[in-house]
Amino acid sequence: MSTFFIALGLSLVGGLGGLLVASGVLLIKDSTRSRLVPWLVSYAVGALLGVSILALLPTTLEQLPPSRVFATLLWGILLFFVLEKLVLWRHCHVHDCEVHESSVVPVLVGDAFHNFVDGAVVAAAVMTSVPLGVSTAIAVAAHEIPQEVGEFAILLHAGYARGRALLLNVLSGLASAVGAVVAFVAFDVVPQLLPYFLALAAASFLYVAMADLIPGLHRGRTDAGSLRQILLIAAGVVTMLIL
C-alpha cells in the first residue's frame, strides 16, 4: 500500500509540479520569459534523454530480450507520432502555439491525455523501483514546465482569465493521478505487462525530446545561447545520473 501512495504522490509531482513552476514563470515579464523558456526546454531535453536511455531502457533490458525491448520502442515511437497527428499528444510552447479559441479544447484534451500517460509512466517506474520513480517524476515535471507555459498562453490569448486558466490546467494535471491509479491496478493484476510499458515510456520520452523539443532549440542563430543549451541539456542528463 505504501508503494501505491508513493506512486500517487510522485505522479502528482510530475503532473502538477511543472504547472506550479510554469505559473511562476508567467509572472515574469515577457522579454525575460522568452529567454527563460528555451533554458527550461534544454534542461527538459537532457532529463528526458537521460531517464529514458540511462534508466528506463536498461531496466527493461533486464526483464525482456533486447529484440522485444527495441521492437516495443520502435512501435511506441510510431504510436506517439500517430497520437500527435490526432492532437492527443502535443507539445506546445510559447513561440509555436496556435493562440485562437478553437485551439483550447484540443489542447486541454491532449494535455489531460498526456498527463494521464505520464502518471501511468511514473506509477510503472515506482513499481519497478522507487529511485526510478523519483527520476521519472522529475523528468516528467521538467518537460511539463514549458508545456504548461505554452498552454497558459493559448488560454490567455483565447480570453480566459488567469484564475480560470490556472483551474483548467490544474484539472488537466490531476489526470496524472488517474493514470497512476489505473497503471497500479493494471500492473498489479498483469505484472508481465510492466516491462513493455516501461519500454513505451522510454519511447514517449525520446519522442518528446527529439521530435518536439529539440527542433525548437535549433531555431535562431548559433551564438552563446547554443552553448547554454548544451550545458543545460548536460545538466539534465547529469541529474538523472545522480538520481
In short:
This protein is an all-alpha fold and 243 residues long.
Describe the structure.
48% of the residues are buried. The protein is built from 9 helices and no strands. It has one domain. Residues 98-102 have low confidence and may be disordered. The chain is mainly alpha-helical and 243 residues long. The longest helix has 32 residues, at 30-61. 82% of the residues lie in helices and 0% in strands.
Question: What's the arrangement of secondary structure elements?
Answer:
Layout: H1 2-25, H2 30-61, H3 66-85, H4 104-128, H5 130-157, H6 162-173, H7 175-189, H8 194-217, H9 224-242
Low-confidence stretches: 98-102
Order of helices and strands: HHHHHHHHH
- Cα-based radius of gyration, to the nearest Å: 17 Å
Mean pLDDT level? 84
How much of the polypeptide forms β-strand, as a percent range?
Answer: under 5%
